[in-house]
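Researcher: Before we compare anything, I want clean individual predictions. No alignment, no superposition, just each chain on its own. First chain goes here; please echo the sequence and then give the structure tokens.
Model: Echoing the first chain and its structure:
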Amino acid sequence: MSKQSGRGRVVGLPEWDRCAVMGVVNVTPDSFSDGGRWFDTTAAVKHGLQLVAEGADLVDVGGESTRPGATRVDEAEELRRVVPVVRGLASEGVVVSVDTMRATVAAQALAAGAALVNDVSGGLADPAMIPTVADAGAPFVVMHWRGFLDGGNVKGVYADVVGEVVDELRTRVDAVLAGGVAPDRIVVDPGLGFSKEADHDLTLLAHLDRLHALGHPLLVAASRKRFLGRVLAGPQGAPPPARERDAATAAVSALAARAGAWAVRVHEVRATADAVRVARAVEGAREETEAPGAGASGRARPAASPPGAGGTPDARTGSATPRAEGAR
């Protein structure tokens, strides 16, 4: 992997040759983006399969809204919503992530075939989460989190948002490691929109290189979030509805991919999958033109003939060394 890249291998998951696209299935009636659309198990599984057909590499299944002010569902209801969908998608060969803050939900989802636990609290909401994930040997997403967003955006004050998020994530990662989760199974997430205003989110996106310094693959979850609405609205306008922010989401996804993100989490997959593919193609072209001995065309230059040698160069030196597929 390059020194700027966060696309390290996550043990227990496939290794993708580009920034992965994580599609979202919200099995909730109150998601900020698409609440109620996939509340039925059959509809949720069908939607997850459609996301894969559109280019998702893995699918994140959640049964509890984490929007500001959302009321928590009880454990039994979250299990009822999530586990059958996880089981249905996993049985079709889909790589499934479970989006939950409860250890019992994580454990049952893993037993049903989930491959990854995505906890927006990074293990803070449920003390049993870290030992549960450690015992299962599952990969774990550690998000920057400052508490439940009851009634609004709590503790969203920063003197240096990048430095503070990096420091707080490092502290959280250390706790997860101490709890027994292997370092090659940890993914970090800056928590865009969680206890952050629009300018905080934009600043974090502008400095993803600082998050790579944590030494773990990076998940960027910007899809349809408020800061995109603020950008699209301009200083005096009204933000467009969440479902009208997919082009902006694809733009952020391309930027995140270019900055070395391991994965992006999105609701509308096709546009982001295309954007990520283009970003990877541009990165591949850059790598080829910057390869040792490459000229402007991207092909390696033939070595100069040594003094006294004939004028015909060795034919083998006229072709570029191919870039290994999946180079990071």
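Researcher: Okay. Second chain, same rules.
Model: Second chain and its structure:
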Amino acid sequence: MRTSNPILSRWGAARDAGPADAYARRPVDAAVGGRPTDAYATNPYAPGADTSPRTDGTAVTMDDVIVRTGTTLGTVALTAVLSWLLLPIDEAHLGRSYGMAMGAALVAFVLSLVQSFRRTPSPALILGYAAFEGVFLGVLSSTISTYLAPGVVVQAVLGTFAVSAGVLVAYRMRWIRVTQRFTGFVAAAATGFLLLLVADLLFSAFGAGNGLGFHSGGLGILFGVIGILLGAAFLAMDFKQVEDAVAYGAPREEAWLAAFGLTLTLVWIYLEVLRVLTIFNSDN
């Protein structure tokens, strides 16, 4: 199963090259001597692809994906709540708690990179990532709620649920169609977004306190809204990949990869919603 998240794009390419035990796929509806269907060329689990049986496990089901995703998101939520409650964010201890949050974010990033170079999903790495990501989100959310925009965290959580539910409904109603062109456009937009984010961080680090202006005002809100739209697009791509994997016989272990990709996307959406609401509340 490929992941739509940009962080894991190298992983998808490496795993598609595949070890010898990777399950093979072949087009079944192409004419003799002809090309596979466009859907198959776009998607490894698309109609027209025949997934050969595996001998090392059963095929993934939607229940598998739901359970693994619930476990991963539950780990994020649990460690976020614990870090909110246990790590002090008063002015005397804020620096220490903030340092722990940054350390947790770094560990989460490293774990995601380690997982990205593996050919198979590792539940331990994925849950470890979720746990450290939760510590970072807990301290960050607590700090913003205390010092910048009281009550904004509940709004951000509700906003994340609203965006996710909206994308799910739009996807199920086929208002959003994940095609090769859609995927290419989202990848290009995400690359530009991440480059702007890196440039903003560099400008902030080298003397321009407000960076490129993405931290406040109308420009900051616009940048955050673009980030939310990108997250929604990633989520639609995740739904498509899960749907195709279930329909065309991916191995059960791929449910962990689906959970990983969905968790990364939902964290992205939450952070962008939190950014927009914080700027909006601060400006008011």
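Researcher: What stands out in the second chain?
Model: Residues 2-56 have pLDDT under 50 and may be disordered. Additionally, The first helix runs from residue 9 to 17.
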